[in-house]
Design a protein that fits this description.
Helix content of chain B: 25-40%
Number of domains of chain A: 1
Number of helices of chain B: 12
Number of helices of chain A: 13
Distance between the termini of chain B: 50 Å
Helix content of chain A: over 70%
Strand content of chain A: under 5%
Structural class of chain A: mainly alpha
Oligomer: heterodimer
Strand content of chain B: 25-35%
Radius of gyration of chain A: 19 Å
Radius of gyration of chain B: 24 Å
Order of helices and strands of chain B: EEEHEEHEHHHEHEHEEHEHEEHEHH
Distance between the termini of chain A: 30 Å
Order of helices and strands of chain A: HHHHHHHHHHHHH
Structural class of chain B: alpha/beta
Shape of chain B: elongated
CATH class of the largest domain in chain B: Alpha Beta
Strand order of the largest sheet of chain B: 6-7-8-3-9-10
């Protein structure tokens, strides 16, 4: 436990060593504000909820989460510190989980800083704060899924740019599978069974229902399984590279 | 348990390249093993496998009885490892980095502080503890890596080029540190500085093209040299040809080499023995008979660099053949 915490703490601190973390958080907040208020017509809708705010999270995460995860393993590989990390008495799951938790904690910090949205909507009306809380939970779970994918992809390469691009592509696939636009577009091209299977592993449908306040055990299990699967893949990739 | 490190048939294949080919050796407590070989011979790959960073294609290594494949954590807890190039997290300060390594190793509170303190003192890092590691010179970085390896006072130390990039004073310090710890640990260091092997190693292992080609004490390795028991005398320039002529005919002498010394203008004449036999008496007698009084007479122990070159470039066979030809 102490080992896991030590790894998480170091990784989290590493985000804040350079100004990149602060720039990242500022971009995240500004983008969310712009999207929510202009594109999402937050005021014009005249409804006291944060639906326009949460709608944009998956798309914003698509670009921002890979930026958080690209460093995790690729940088260790580039500088050779991976050899140090993996020859310390650290179990593979501790290294993988420690890094993931650090990235998740960083995302949680960025997400927590969106609290002014909650304040504004509460000042303007009387929203259902339970639904807003569910939205935040859903957003954090979605971010966890993207992070798990991004971390595993980062272990494939020593080049952060490649890690970023691959992670964005992979997350994009898992996001758009469920969106009606894409489903309608490819419906003729692929068998309906495959489409249905694709919809099952899609993240966005489940995210949407959570942000509407519908928290089902099935969705929670799905998110947990999704994250666990990619963390396991991450460990396998690191282990395979050792044998290479 | 005497053998702290047991390496058994360690083999590593990278695609078509056989980087390490069936290397076996043991290192006991109290031994300092010098791991020698040209660049790319497989030294670092072998060390990475012993440390559990690379998975061997075949074979295994045991540290203090624990198999690195079956019980990697038990091995890593007992091992202090300095990876090639001494990688450290560049954005951390020396203190924060060592503190982190200590907490990953499970130390907390006063004990952690004491261990970090002691490792920093042993490697003379006191003046730079609040510097980010990236701001340090190469020598300091290497010492941070060394401090990290010593932190938990491990039974086994595997150090990949611990003195690379250090100035002569720092090299001396590190060698002293290693010698001081040698008695109660099993230590493996890789190096291509041969004087280092003679200075601190109790045993030397030479690896070339992935294969273990020699294993013995530095003195025994040196004894394989053509120069083992060679006699070198210094004579006046005018006596050069007379000295060479006097020595060349002798039965026990394989070859005579003469070279003018730029320092003092004298000529250094060396007689190389056949099969490492002592020839001092014969040389003295021959020179006496030729009425040459050398200003200096030295018996060589053997030249490690020459042995190293011969066995790592596959010229060992040539050497033997040359000796046979001279004998004929």
């Amino acid at each position: 436990m102490r080992t896991l915490l030590a790894i998480t703490r170091r990784e989290l601190a590493a985000y804040f060593v350079t100004p990149v973390a602060y720039v990242f958080i500022v971009i995240f907040l500004v983008m969310l504000g712009a999207l929510t208020f202009s594109v999402g017509s937050f005021f014009e809708r005249g409804q006291a909820d944060l639906a326009p705010f949460f709608t944009f999270h998956p798309w914003l995460y698509l670009l921002l989460i890979p930026a958080i995860t690209m460093r995790l393993w690729a940088e260790e590989r580039r500088t050779g510190t991976i050899e140090l990390l993996l020859t310390l008495p650290v179990a593979m799951w501790q290294a993988v989980l420690g890094k993931f938790l650090a990235a998740w904690a960083f995302t949680a910090i960025a997400l927590a800083l969106t609290f002014p949205f909650v304040v504004i909507v509460n000042l303007l009306g009387s929203p259902d704060n339970g639904v807003i809380l569910a939205g935040y939970a859903g957003s954090l779970l979605l971010a966890g899924c993207y992070l798990a994918v991004g971390a595993a992809v980062s272990a494939l390469t020593r080049n952060q740019v490649i890690a970023f691009v691959l992670a964005t592509a992979a997350c994009f696939v898992f996001t758009v599978f469920g969106s009606p636009v894409v489903a309608g577009f490819v419906a003729d091209a692929i068998p309906s069974g495959a489409l249905e299977a694709a919809r099952r592993v899609s993240l966005i449908g489940r995210y949407d229902s959570i942000t509407r306040g519908v928290i089902s055990a099935r969705d929670l299990v799905f998110f947990a399984t999704f994250i666990a699967f990619w963390l396991y893949a991450n460990a396998v990739i690191v282990e395979l590279k050792k044998a290479g | 348990m005497a053998a702290m490190i047991e390496v058994e048939g360690l083999t590593k294949r990278f695609g078509p390249v056989l980087a390490v080919d069936d290397v076996s050796m043991t290192v006991a407590r109290g031994e300092v093993l010098g791991f020698l070989g040209p660049n790319g011979a497989g030294k670092s790959t072998t060390m990475k496998m012993i440390a559990g960073f690379l998975t061997p294609t075949a074979g295994t290594a045991r540290l203090a009885g624990h198999d690195v494949l079956a019980e990697p954590l038990a091995v890593k807890r007992r091992l202090g490892y300095l990876p090639e190039g001494a990688p450290t997290y560049p954005d951390m300060t020396v203190l924060a980095f060592l503190d982190w390594v200590a907490s990953v190793r499970g130390f907390a509170g006063a004990e952690r502080r004491a261990r970090v303190e002691r490792a920093m003192r042993a490697t003379s890092l006191g003046e730079v503890i609040y510097y980010p590691i990236e701001a340090l010179s190469k020598g300091f970085k290497r010492r941070v890596g060394l401090a990290q390896a010593l932190l938990h006072d491990p039974e086994v130390l595997v150090l990949d080029e611990p003195t690379d990039g250090l100035d002569p004073n720092q090299k001396h310090e590190v060698r002293r540190l290693i010698s001081a710890m040698a008695a109660e640990k099993a230590i493996v260091i890789s190096t291509h500085i041969l004087e280092e092997v003679e200075a601190i190693c109790t045993r030397a292992v030479v690896i070339a093209r992935g294969r273990l080609v020699a294993d013995g004490s530095p003195a025994a390795l040196a004894a394989r040299s053509r120069w083992h028991n060679a006699v070198t005398v210094r004579v006046l320039p005018g006596q050069r040809s007379a000295a060479v002529a006097a020595l060349e005919g002798l039965a026990g002498i394989a070859a005579v080499e003469a070279e003018e010394m730029p320092m003092d203008g004298l000529v250094s004449v060396s007689a190389l023995p056949r099969a490492g036999q002592p020839i001092e008496a014969a040389v003295k007698q021959a020179l006496g008979a030729a009425a040459i009084a050398p200003s200096e007479l030295r018996i060589e122990r053997g030249r490690l660099d020459e042995v190293f070159r011969a066995i790592t470039t596959g010229r060992a066979a040539d050497m033997a053949a040359g000796e046979a030809r001279e004998a004929a």
